[in-house]
């Protein structure tokens, strides 16, 4: 009897331990405040989390619940977005200011609480107010549950590689000046790898990221493009990289010597230290797809040093693509495929309930009276609607409490005016350059399937636009150049093993076909992840209705939700 009781007690303890390990609570505290730094011959004050740049790396397992206590000790309004997290029934924690919450005001705090469901891989977190995400960001790494493994050989070590962008001035003022004058924002002056600019910049010889390698070992590099306004090429001298995941979605292994990533995207690659003992540069530089538009034409680099390499060894430098090498960028973006049958794989929904053709691009708007703005201001739009965020109540609060007047649900499912979208002659039609302002959304039935065909326009020039959808991942069925033609381009759709992403880089002067299932009630913003384009109006949002059961219904907001 005693032995039976002992075994029963052990079984209960093992069950409790198993349950605890499968569903942990992971808790962090973020203090967002001023930090004085010395970079590029300049001393300045930035906004940072816990005195670090990048901010803290959060490590969780699939199934964990994450609690992050955010104390805003900075002088700016603030919110934190958990980029790529589905936020199933936790839309109040998604983070975009005035979409799912009012910002956290200076001196105030908010607890973000959500559970990581059906996701593994590399995501990240960042500020979602103004240009503050230039310095307020960090990695969010999701490992498989206990007892589960990666669908590739276990690496010797995992290394986050965060690619950033740097200004020698207050980034809040950069955006403020651009909004006031109507001009493009001041360009960054450097890129960074894990916060370090590298030795090609002034006063930076000793400000370079270094990674020690053991010959013969394989490493998992978790690459995150945390830059504000630039897509980036990334290479390592004399080494191949094998892509195994993008945006926390496993892929068929894809071998390449260059990675391309748009702001917001993540790419996990396996790197095998299979070269002679020595030192090798890793480097990142801009992919700039817009003709005639100024960009930060600099290069950041770090060093991979094999164990045993002499310190006097001059590292080998990779040959980087030209800044406008669209063929290389498109080859990388379009050749990735999903890992069918892998963890969290989702088949492509074949029945489409809501079809959309959405034009994306820049434009102009008149200057407000009595301002310093000179000439028309830069603007941006989707289907000729330039998005305006509410100011008095978040859209998710308006949805939950059924408050009218905050937004409308009449976003057009196709362009209100059809034209030759990628023909530059459209710029001769002056009225077409000006899109009306509005807070127009699309209402979706719960569990409906949405197909969005993104179409870049030539208004003020074609450009690759990284479009980020909150709350869901896209299946990316096809990508191409020119105007989308259903008669011929539908034949190019991949419905077998397409890649899945939360951020799709729509080709410059081209299109991309995506699908997602609206299985998460709430309000979810869709926007360009070039930060200079979001305040210009290149955004919209989806209102997903509640499902038929309590398990498919958005719960009430937390009591500490920030108020406007």
UniProtKB/TrEMBL annotation:
Where is the protein found, in the record's own terms?
Answer: Secreted, Extracellular space, Apoplast
Q: Which InterPro entries match?
A: Cu-oxidase-like_N (IPR011707), Cu-oxidase_2nd (IPR001117), Cu-oxidase_C (IPR011706), Cu-oxidase_fam (IPR045087), Cu_oxidase_Cu_BS (IPR002355), Cupredoxin (IPR008972), CuRO_1_LCC (IPR034288), CuRO_2_LCC (IPR034285)
Has the keyword Transcription been applied to this entry? Answer: no
Keyword Oxidoreductase attached: yes
Q: Which UniProt keywords apply?
A: Apoplast, Copper, Glycoprotein, Lignin degradation, Metal-binding, Oxidoreductase, Repeat, Secreted, Signal
Organism domain of life: Eukaryota
Q: Which reaction does it catalyse?
A: 4 hydroquinone + O2 = 4 benzosemiquinone + 2 H2O
E.C. number:
1.10.3.2
Cofactors needed by this protein, per the record, are:
Cu cation
Principal localisation: secreted
What the protein does? Lignin degradation and detoxification of lignin-derived products.
Q: Which NCBIfam families match?
A: laccase (TIGR03389)
The name on file for this protein is Laccase
